[in-house]
Specification:
five-stranded antiparallel β-sheet, Nuclear Transport Factor 2, Chain: A, single chain, elongated, mainly beta, 5 strands
Amino acid sequence: MYFGNKKLNPKWKIHYEVQYRNYNVIVDLEQLLLRIGLGYTFNDGKNNLLMGYGYILSENYLRDIEQKNINK
């Protein structure tokens, strides 16, 4: 997992994250999450509004067989 924030100025920031989830250590992908958002701080730094986008790729195994069901 990786999470980050980049402050553009005192009011605006960018939030980003990557989550890679798998089976068998690093061999088999189970889920990949990519998210990014733009945040705005108001009320003298007391409140923050974040709007963004998330991409989620899931590759789950079908029950009792060695085939994956890919959901995008």
